[in-house]
Design brief:
By secondary structure, this protein is α/β, with parallel strands linked by helices. The protein folds into two domains: 159 residues, Rossmann fold, CATH 3.40.50; 130 residues, N-(1-d-carboxylethyl)-l-norvaline Dehydrogenase, domain 2. Helix content is 51%, strand content 12%. The chain is built from 13 helices and nine strands. Strands 3-2-1-4-5-6 form a six-stranded parallel sheet, with helices on both faces. It has a three-stranded mixed sheet with strand order 7-8-9, sandwiched between helices. α8 crosses α12 and α12 packs across α13. The longest helix has 29 residues.
C-alpha cells in the first residue's frame, strides 16, 4: 500500500529531508510559511499543501520540522483540526521536552499519535541521507512509522518513552558542537604552524583522530568557504539554550560544551551569523592573528 507523507516545515533541514522521502518511494505533500521553499520542492515532485491543516488532511502520516515551540503549538492545533483519527505525527524538531509534550497532548486529545523523533546531523548529512533518528514514544506507533523514518535517516533507533529522543539529541548536539569547535581549533593551530589546511583535512579524515564534523565541516574550514551548507549559527545557539537548561535542571556539569560555545559567540560577534557554523574557524583565525584573505576562498567544497 502506498503511503502519503505530509511534511510541515521545509527549512534548512526539512528541505534536505524531503527529496530523500520521495526517493524512498513515498508520495509527499508539504508546506512551509516560505512559499519559495514549497515551490522549489514542488518542482521536484512534492505536492504543495495549502496550509498545515490541508497537509494533515491529505496525509497518512505527518512529519513536522519546526523552528520554535510557538510554531509547534500552532501546527499541532492545525493537525488536530484535520480530524485524522489515529494519524502518526513524527516530530523531528529540536525543542524543550516540555514543549514537545504540550504538542503531543494537543494531538492526542484529537485522537492522533505523536512520536518525539529528533535527528542528529546537519544539512550536508541530511542531503546524503546520513541522519540518525532518535524515536521515542508509543512503541507500536514507532513500528508503524519506522519505514517512513528510514526514508530520511540512515540510522534509526527507538530510544524509549516520549521525550527520550530529545534527551538523546541533547547529548548528540553537545558532541556535534564540541567536535566542530575543536576541528576549527586544530585547523588554526595547523595553519599557524605552516601546514596547508587542505592537506590537513585529507590526512586526518578517515583516521582515528577524525569525526563526522571534521570530515564535513572541516572541509569547509579547509577551503575557507562557509556558504555551502546553510545551517547558520541561529540553530546551534537556539539549541544551546535548551541543552543548558536541561543540564542545569539535572545539576549535570557540561563545562567542555560551555567552553566550545564561546567561539560560536565570537563568530556571531564578528559578523558570521548567516554563514555555516563551521565559520567558528574564521573567528579562531582572527583570535590567533592568522586570518586568510577573503579572496583565498575555494569553490566546490564537496
Amino acid at each position: 500500500m502506498s503511503i502519503t507523507v505530509g511534511q510541515i516545515g521545509l527549512g534548512v533541514l526539512g528541505s534536505a529531508m524531503a527529496p530523500n522521502i520521495m526517493k524512498s518511494g513515498f508520495s509527499l505533500i508539504g508546506y512551509d510559511v516560505r512559499s519559495d521553499a514549497v515551490a522549489d520542492l514542488a518542482g521536484g515532485g512534492m505536492v504543495a499543501g495549502k496550509d498545515p491543516r490541508d497537509v494533515a488532511a491529505k496525509s497518512d502520516m505527518v512529519i513536522t520540522c519546526l523552528p520554535s515551540a510557538a510554531s509547534l503549538m500552532e501546527v499541532a492545533g492545525a493537525i488536530a483540526g484535520a480530524g485524522q483519527e489515529g494519524q502518526i505525527v513524527l516530530e523531528t524538531s529540536t525543542l524543550a521536552v516540555a514543549d514537545k509534550e504540550a504538542g503531543r497532548d494537543i494531538i492526542e486529545a484529537a485522537g492522533g499519535r505523536m512520536l518525539d523523533c529528533p535527528v542528529s546531523g546537519n544539512r550536508i548529512l541530511a542531503v546524503k541521507k546520513q541522519l540518525t533518528a532518535f524515536a521515542s514514544g508509543d512503541e507500536a506507533a514507532y513500528g508503524e512509522a519506522e519505514a517512513v523514518i528510514n526514508g530520511f535517516a540512515s540510522r534509526v533507533f527507538y530510544v524509549g518513552e516520549f521525550g527520550a529522543g530529545m534527551k538523546m539529541k541533547f547529548c548528540a548536539n553537545i558532541l556535534n558542537l564540541v567536535h566542530n569547535s575543536v576541528a576549527a581549533e586544530v585547523m588554526v593551530l595547523g595553519m599557524k604552524s605552516g601546514l596547508d589546511p587542505k592537506m590537513m583535512h585529507q590526512v586526518i579524515s578517515g583516521s582515528g583522530s577524525s569525526s563526522s564534523m571534521f570530515e564535513t565541516r572541516g572541509a569547509m574550514m579547509a577551503h575557507n568557504n562557509y556558504v555551502h551548507e546553510g545551517m547558520n549559527f541561529s540553530i546551534p545557539l537556539k539549541d544551546a539554550r535548551f541543552i543548558s537548561e536541561h543540564a542545569a535542571g539535572l545539576y549535570a556539569p557540561i563545562p567542555i560544551y560551555q567552553a566550545a560555545l564561546q567561539p560560536y559567540y565570537a563568530a556571531v560577534a564578528q559578523g558570521h551569523m548567516d554563514e555555516d557554523a563551521s565559520a567558528v574557524c574564521a573567528a579562531m583565525e582572527r583570535a590567533a592573528n592568522c586570518e586568510r584573505p577573503a579572496n583565498e576562498k575555494s569553490e566546490n567544497v564537496f
